[in-house]
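Exercise 7.
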Amino acid sequence: MPEKWIKTHCARFDHGGCGLEVLVKDGKLVKIRADKTDAYSEGYCCPKGLAGIDRACHPARLRQPLLRRGARGEGEWEAIPWERALDILVSEFRSAMAGGGPESVAFCQGAPRGLEFFILLRLANLLNCPNVGAAQHVCHMPREQMAAVTCGFFPVPDYDAPTRCILLWGSDPQRTNEEGILGVRFQKALKQGAGLIVVDPLKSGPARTADLWLQIRPGTDDLLAVGLLHVIVEEGLFDRPFVERWTTGFAELRAAVRPFDPATVSLGTGIPAERITSAARLYANSRPAMIHWGNAVEHSANSSQTCRSLVLLMALTGNLEAPGGNVKAEAPNVMRPAELICLKQFPGRIDKLPNRTWGLIPRLLTVPNWILFHSILDASPYAVKCLYVQATNPLISCSEADKVLQALLKLDFLAVADIFMTPTAAFADLVLPAATHLEYNDIGHYGLPHGHVFARPKAVDPPGDAWPDIRILNEWGKRMGFGSRFWDTEDRILEAVLEPSGLAYGDFAAKGLLSGPRTHYSYREKGFATPSGKVELHSSLLEEWGYSPVPTVGAHAGTDERFPFLLTSRKPRYFFHSAYRQIESLRERTPRPTVMIHPDTASRLGIAAGTPVRISTVSGSVTQFAELTPDIDPEAIFADFGWWFPERADEMFAWKESNLNQLTGSGGPTDPIMGTVQLRAIPCSIEKAESVPAMKSRTP
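Solution. The predicted structure, written as tokens, is:
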């Protein structure tokens, strides 16, 4: 068979997007390179994407369904055929529902890779099951929901038009890409002369070259945001014609932000007052200007109001739907997500969501995963007996890891679909082998508010009996009695999604990308999709639901003698959340978990670079290795997220040893609107670790 180059798009184990060319010979992967002709990524691809062959061909790949033999966690498995695996899924879920109804079963999803999340939601909705756990409360949804109630759409940075200023907040596009926005576009805007303001407690690459770096105290983003609003309002820097014609609630907003003058905000954020004023003036006077925000703004117990304040900054300065500002990206002409997930087939979904017990916003499709695990433990509001987990490793990725384990062990039945054996899968009753994105046809970035979808055509067959997630769900759904609601094959799903576009999947794959229009100033004809038809500075919807209709500032963590430092975190550049630590080419770049400590702090505590450090909070302790840097405040500690050790399978992957979520907990305050737990700015202590287990070979 001759060699063949196949054009596809990356899925780093999430939505993905960079264009790739994959060389296949004799049905095997040979090489991956960045697609220099791709209109979206423009020839860029990070090392994670280029390691796709290492992941797909890794010897530790799961290749057959595995049924547990012996106690959970003992590692005794029996390989079984798919027919039996599907029969077990059907039997266990039907048995649980016969005793406790559809509320007695649950699903859990990580960062979506393509359509599998939507097919999972389809199955859950057809079952009338309200228990779909996910990370939306700490990943994108606070921004989406607060934008929706404020201006009626999700405002994305318009890198297709020239901009005069970028306010980069909680993101480092030179290391990791915010979903839907690649760093190459950010870099291009800077080369074209855009000014740059960076809000980050770490002196990141962008911070080093910024016009203004605001080194914020971790966890005080809400305070800085209202401080910037204060300056813009009190100094009259807002776009007066836009505010008078297209907003409501200006007087209420002005009253809400009046107490937060730069001197007051400086005391809480640690940023000099004059820099706060300068940043507000630079952003407000640089029209057009954009806000490029990252996932970090969603990791505090006041994330919703932080996100809303940032949308209000866009609105007050007239940068909403302005070229070079933050704009509306219309979806391409494909099936609407509500149709794909059969949302209308579960009319009572909102009232049955466990979220209602916690008073959360009624617009969420999923349950914050910490609430799902608490519900399993407490049998409230439902006694959950069965859980299906796909594309996630909650023992590592979810807050309060010990409670996650307690919940998993309490279940009558746990099934996990994944590419590798993980700490979570090790405690399952049934483990299903999933395919990588190079091994099946898929559509990337579907259902997200950035206005495009990517073609991800198959390059090779999956190894052994590994199946795509969408195939597992499609076959399972048919066996649950919904034959007419699912498809003959998984490729038929793709054809159904693309049908409104008039394209067959092959034609879509040849195009590579479908985009909807990005609009400018559409509100001048249509108004905004809010109850008032305007940008609601004082939100009528939040007020109706019982939340503060104007921005508020939450309580900020303080240090004390026992916990004298503030813990925040970072995602290592060469991994994606808890994934990739098996891959030698990436692990060589980051061989072990590190914690960033200021040299003055380390000197005072007798900690040398590279030595093991014990990090402790009220929730627990972990060990990571010291990395000394002057680029952080001496009070701050930056620990690595997502660590476990695939090479230590005989020790349950040493999943507790360096796991950041041993240090987090949901016992403290949570965001009243979204349920966000405090993942950053956690009081902690650090000390030299007395001993640490020897590092083993990194090859599992």
